[in-house]
Each structure stands twice: as C-alpha cells, then as structure tokens.
Amino acid sequence: MSATTAPAQQGIYHKAGSLRSERRWALWTAYLSLIVSAIIMLAPPVYMLLTSLKTSAEVADQSGSPWWVSNPTLENYWALLGNRMFIDFFLNSAKVTIAVVALTMVISVLAAFALGRMRFWGSQALATGVFLTYLVPDTLLFIPLYQIVGGLGLLDNAWGLVLVYPTLTVPFCTWIMIGYFASIPKELDEAALIDGANWMQMLWKIFIPVALPGIIAATIFAFTVSWAAFVYPTAFITTPSEMPMTIGVVSQLIRGDTFAWGQLMAGALLAALPPVVIYAFLMDYYIAGLTAGATKG
Amino acid sequence: MADGGAATLPRMDAPGGASLKRFARRRSTIAFLMTLPLIAVIGGLVVWPAGYAIHLATLNRRMTSFIGLGNFEILLESETFRMVIFQSVFFAITAVILKAAIGFWLAHMLHHIPANGQRKWRGMLLVPWVIPPALSTLGWWWMFEPTYSSINWILNIFAIPSVPWLGEPWWARISVIIVNVWYGAPFFMIMYLAALKSVPEQLYEAAAIDGATSWQRLRYVTLPMMRNIISITVLFSLIVTFANYDIVRVLTNGGPRDLTHVFASYAFQVGILAGNIPRGAAVSLFMFPILAIIAFFVLRGVNRRNKEEA
User: Fold this and answer.
1) pLDDT tens across A167-197, in order?
2) B20 touches A at CB < 8 Å
3) Where do transmembrane segments lie in this chain (chain B) (predicted)?
C-alpha cells in the first residue's frame, strides 16, 4: 500500500513544485520580453529626441557614440519656432484638423443615432455600407479625388483637405458610435418618449451624455487620423504655405544633399507632439476607441 | 375597476394607433435627414470616386479617348509593375504575419504580469502606434542613414558588419518591413490583450483541473476563444498594410531602382508625379479585387461575432 502511494505523492509534490517554478519562469520571460520590446519600441523616438538636441557639428562628428549628446542645445527648436513656414504648417494642421473633427462628429453622431436607434428602411444595409467604406483605403481613392478636388479648384488649398479627410474619419467614428449607442438600454428612450421628449432632445439630453466616453474616443480617433493624414496632403498640396505638418516636415525640411538632421528631427517631434500629448492624458479613451471597432462591431 | 380599465383601453387605442403611425412616418423621415450627411460623404467621396477611378483607368494619357483595358495590359507587360505586385504581396504578407506573431506574444506577456504594472507597460509599448507614421519613419530613415547609421553603430559593437539598409534591394525591402512591424505590432498587442481579458477565468481553472499544460491551455482554450478577433485584426491589418503609402514614400521612395514600390507609391509616382492620371488610377485599381476578397472575409467574421454575442 505505502509503496504505491509514495511515488504518487511524490508525483503530486513534484508537479506542484514544477508549477511554481513554471510560474516564476513565465514571469521572468514576461518581464524580459517586455523590457526588450520596450527598448525597441522606444528607441526611434528617443534617438530622434537625442538628435534634435545636437548641433549640426555634433551630428557630423563620428568619433563618439551617436546615442549620446555631449552638449545638449535647444537651438534646433528655437530655429523652427522662429521659422514662419513651420508655424504655417502648424496653423494649417490645426485649422484642418479642428474643422474635420467638428464635421466628423456632427455627421457621425447624427447618423449613428439614426442608424442605431431609429430603424428605418435600409438602415441595416447602410450600417454595413459604413463598415465597408471604412475598409476602402485612401490610397485607392486619391487619384480620382485628385481629379474631383482639382475640378472644384481646391487643389493646393488647405480647405480642400477638409473636404476629403471625412473619408478617413466618418466611417469609423459612425461605426463605433453605433456600437456605443446600442449599449444604452432601450428603457431610457422609452422613459424619454413618455416624458414627451422629441428625437433631438433625446439625442442631446440622453444619448450624448450617456455615450460621452464613446464620443471622446471617437473625437480622439478623428483628431489623430486627421493630424497624421499623409496621402491626401502629399497628393493635393504643393505650395508650402498651404501644407499641414506631416507633409511639410517631410518635404520642406529636407533640402538638397546636406540634411539639417537635428532640425529635421526636432520638426518631426514637434509635429508628432499633439497626438502624443492627447494619448498621454487620455490613454484609456484612446485605447477604448482603438478596440471598440473590433469588439463592438 | 378592472372591467372599467379594460373598457376604456380600446377607445384610447384608436387615436393612439393613428398618431403612432404618423409618428413612425415622421420618425423615418427624421432618421433619413439625420443620415443624409453620412450618405453624402459615402456617396460623394467614396462610391463616386471609386466608380470614377474605373472610368479614368479606361482612358488614354491625355484623357481624350477610351482605350478599354489598354492601361492594364501595358502595366502587366511591364517588368517594373510585375515587381510592384510581387513587392506589395511580399511586404503585406510578411509584415502582417510578423505583426500578428509579435503582437500575440506581447499581449500574452503583458497578460502574465501583475495587473497593476500592466498599464505602464501598455502605455510605453503603444507609443509607435501613436506617432504619425510619416514622422516616425523619418526617424527610422535617419537611423538607417548609411554614413551615420546608429543601428550599424550598435551592430558594430557586437562585431557585426554594417548593413547597407536602404542601398541594396533586399535590405531595403527588409527595412520597410521592420518599420511597418514596429509601427503595427502594438496595435495587434492592444487588440489581443483586450480579447485575452475577455476569456472567462473559469475556462482556465477547468483546464487546470483537467491537468492541461500551458501549451494545451493556449491551444485548446485561448486560441479558440480568440479565433474571431485574430482573424478580424489580421484581415483588417492586411488591407491597411497592403495599401500602405507613408512608410515606403519616406523611407525608400520606391528606390533603389524602383524595386521597393508598392501599389500605392507606384500609383502616386505614375499618376501624380509623372502626370499619367489614367494609368495611376489603373495601378491603384489593382488593389481592389484583393481588398474586396479580404473585406468579404472580414464582414463574415464580424457577422459571426455578432451572432455569437447575440
């Protein structure tokens, strides 16, 4: 009897021990992978920051490590902030982005409310259509849109971008707003109807306040997408004074064969700052918007 | 009392029914008006341009006469364009597989560590996704720069010879993939992490009681539970990667010798820079059948997911 139980017991203990060591190993592997990947993920922006703090002489000097700054200076940033053209890039980006975000939110909140709550003929097909439109990439549309925008005389004009950016933002924002509105219990609108509210009051007084996290997430999405848009401005804008940040930094700060690397990196970082700041402060909303497309849809 | 209530009900119902009908009619009108801006955006800025692209692609260079499928024939006969097809497919498939694998791995690692530390790590690892890709690619471009390459500097420390990142075709292709994976893997990580969190803990407990190893837990619990979200993210990313423009434009601009062009960058070069709008439209239309097939599968996945949840 005892001869048969002893190995079994040993087996159990062995198993428990291996389980604990397995857990420990798993934890170590987890931390190791996270540290290594965090270094890789953060290396490019960190290196951009290091370069932006160097003078041109230090960038050209190859005797030391490129990953170190011996005389940090902000002169690249001051040079950019004193550069009228760079300020124009920023103002154009801000102008276009704010207009597009406002337009997008009005269009998509109204449409999502109608599609999600006020079922009507064809609303289901339209909701599917919205999702399909979201899958159409901008690189498929930019050539016909170039002709269309050109026909309207809006090429080389920042307002032309306000016209076309909704193709990037509206489908996704409508899609996630349908999801957020669908999660609001039906009892709420019944109660509102009994109290004699009309549809606009219902949307304004109930749906928008209750779905506020969704609206913030959608706004952040619209903002980051409009700020980062690259294909349309590259195709439509050739005059520097009408360029938004992304294409401005990429095309105008690179001149000839001798690159002012420090200034270029400073420009790229300044241009990337608004979305990064929003991300830093509203990370949870940002991530909610990111995952909502797949988990709610 | 009860009888009285029942008797008054039908009388209340008659006018109520009529106004309800009117109400419904009004409701659908209001709803239609509310969706009108959306319909205008979709119709005017997506459907109409897409149809217009097909029309454009059948014209000659000066857009004066109809030449049918002439542009497509010329493209398929050109060596450069066949290279573009190869490069686009190779780039999209390799990059998506790597992004999905790395994202899956990182999501798992993140899921393993204590919950209070997860936020911080997640915040750091998502940074590449937050920076506009055109701008972060500038940073990579600088890191790949032949004379000053800081990556080569690190490789040299480990006695690995310098790599001609953007100078040699295959290395240029690999560079484009590296940057795309760096940019896209965090997105997969976030999606998979959200999916991992939604797998009920009891399933793992049941598996542990049945004596499942960690591999079996992954294979028979986690993967089946995540199958749908994995397929949706992979298909979605396939579309976005396939249509990518910014990274190729900034990093190689199609070079060396037009060997790293993808559909989007080649369409741009032919259509906008060289001014041959119809042929550019034809290049970008080559993406359409592939995207349509992927979109079909995405939609099927989404529908299936909705049914599961319902």
Assistant:
1) 999 998 998 898 888 888 888 888 888 888 8
2) no
3) 30-54, 84-106, 126-144, 174-195, 229-247, 283-302
